[in-house]
Description:
The complex is a heterodimer.
Chain A (H helix, E strand, L loop, with lengths): L5 H45 L3 E6 L9 H15 L3 E6 L6 H12 L5 E4 L5 H11 L4 E5 L12 E6 L2 H14 L4 E6 L4 H15 L6 E6 L6 H13 L4 E5 L4 H10 L2 E6 L10 E7 L1 H13 L12 E4 L6 E3 L8 H16 L41 E2 L5
Parallel strand pairs in A: 1-2, 1-3, 3-4, 4-5, 5-11, 6-7, 6-8, 7-13, 8-9, 9-10
Antiparallel strand pairs in A: 10-12
Chain B lengths: L1 H5 L4 H4 L1 H27 L4 H13 L2 H26 L7 H19 L5 H30 L3 H21 L33 H18 L1 H11 L1 H6 L4 H28 L10 H11 L4 H16 L1 H8 L5 H17 L15
Helix pairs in contact in B: 3-4, 3-16, 4-5, 4-14, 4-15, 5-6, 5-9, 5-12, 5-13, 5-14, 6-7, 6-8, 6-12, 6-13, 7-8, 7-12, 9-10, 9-14, 10-12, 13-14
Amino acid sequence: MPNRTPLGFSRRQVIRGLLATTAFGAVTKLSTGCAPSSDSTGATDEGGSASDEVVVGFIYVGPKDDFGYNQAHAEGAAAMAANVPGIKIVEEANVPETTAVAESMRNMIEIDGAKVLFPTSFGYFDPYILELATEFPEVQFFHAGGLYQEGTHPENVGSYFGYIDEAQYIAGIIAGYASQSGKLGFVAAKPIPQVLRNINAFTLGAKSVNPDITTQVIFTGEWAEPVKEAEATNSMADQGIDVVTCHVDSPKVVMETAEKRGIFSSGYHANQGPLAPEGYLTGAEWDWESIYTSLGEQFVAGETLMAGDIDHILRGGLADNFCKLSDYGPAVSDEAKAAADAALEQLIAGELIIYPGGLKSNSGDVVIPEGEGYKQDNIELEKMDYLIEGVLGSIDG
Amino acid sequence: MAIAQAAPASWLYRWRRPLEAVALPAAALLAAILIFGVFCALAGANPLAVYGSIYKAAFGSWSAWQNTLIRASPLMLTALCTALPARLGLVIIGNEGALVIGGLAAVVAGLQLGTALPAPLTQIAMAIAAIVAGGLWIALAGALRHYRGVNETISSLLLNYIAIALMNHLVEGPMRDVAFVTKPSSAELDPSLLIGNLPGSRIHYGLLYGLIACVIAYVLIQRTTFGFAARTAGGNIRAARIAGLPVGKLTLAVCFLGGSAAGLAGMIEVAAVQKRLNASLVSNYGYAGILVAFVSRHNPLATVLVAILLGGILASGGILQRSHDLPDATVLVFQGIVFLCVLFSDSLYGRLPWFREKPAT
């Protein structure tokens, strides 16, 4: 056959390419020709119906049902829509931290008429949120993580985050009561301050029950490394560790592995109780439902960041409903429950200081000066670069 | 003989081949749309409304077109990394790694030179660094193939992991800018070094580079003796050797060219979008490029069209979730169905009776 030879192949390709290009060009002309009219009518239609409701856009970096970071935000979004009349939410999941998220935000604003956006992944902030916020000064952008800087960043950007280490402290108390071996495990993603705070608070909570208890830390290096997370959990079980918790994007693998190995687990981000019906003790959960609901009420009332009605930095802990604990699992003893509830009450009342004065790191340095200790809002805690005494592991890897 | 055959050929007869080349992909697309419609109906959405939304979100307005083209532009370059070596009979899938290495080289060059030279010169230096680094990266797989007989598919795939690990190591260690807290990243490139947008749009100049690269690749492969030699070697390597073609040099050169295209894509991504080096550079452009190359049958011009088609499909992913309550994986389902249908149609070339050349009588 002549078309099998290189020459015949090339000729066919030329003609095919030319034809296809022409056809494509024709389609392009046609579509752009009729586009402006159809687009503008579409926009006004939707704009008309949206005038009495506030459209809020949510963007997630992963799936909405990951039993972790994204699910916590998605549940919060659903609660905002359910609890606040006059709010309409639009959502996109699995949006990577590239121009894709900029395009998603733009579409939500231009096509859906969104007035408020919650791009929830930490990495969306710089440059994407900052660029879009400059371009659309009338749209409010909320970002989880506390990166907003007064004066540097646009006025229509706000950030919110919670002191979830308070919940980790309570989870540590429960873990301290549950552990028979006195060995706890913590599967962590990266040694950044937020993660270190959780590891240290969890350990401090456990040590308040049993001063000799230790927490073995394994850093996987990435936010989503299911294979390494499973390996870490298995090796912890092999070492005789009998309670594991984690700080990774989706705790699903850690919880399921722990349940399979017959050890206790403590959750993070969202409620993983259904994944480990026997061994799940409790978990440190974000309570975005209450925060998003109260923000939604403010949006409907016409309050904005730009007018100064909403603070640019929203922070809080258990007392302000930024975080909460999962319902206690069946393995939690009454004694543990009582101790945890007492500590919870003290934290909410502001009487309990998690990071005491004279605290030592696991390399023996005094990291908090003698005295009162650091309260949650102490700025020093946001630069945390140490693991406390009782934690086995090192932040260098 | 030739004249005697051509004489009875009717007008229709002469146009059967090009018609086949247009009709088959079009039919495949139509079939894919129908199958996807069934999927949508099963998922509880009105297929016609979904088609309308996809069209609107991908090609329905100038804004939608920009969205599509922004997503398509890196794919044109990364696709060449597979398409060019494929003409030589090699299956290279190291696109992602070459892109990362290109981005890494561009950032290193940009940060080292800083503002010492005029900005256009530094930009050219960044592009050359990216092109050379990406090219060498894939040429490595080509060299392993030619000199040691290592399977180039496996070696180029593994080189991806090495490239990504190297970049992660550098941005988390020696190159890390501690002041940037969002994620471990290198320092930011000087604003003067960034690639801007095409006038009156939000599409960066990378689209232009992609189009130019595809045209150059097309001319090189189809219209030069170098391209002819490469295609001959791809057709039958022993025949090529007997004909005295320098197969080793060809392998290295074509792999280098493929890798340099992906490397350039990396440079564009850091200089036009990310502004610094970090893990966001690894966002599947390389792997999507493999898909584009195979669907376009390794023809660099068809690559442009397929990249735009894929860009459009990706651009419509958002509206499927927002307006039709379909799950976020729907767009992947659609993409998968389209590409399976197009690849299947590939096997029908020359088999449909209507398009078959009839023996001249």
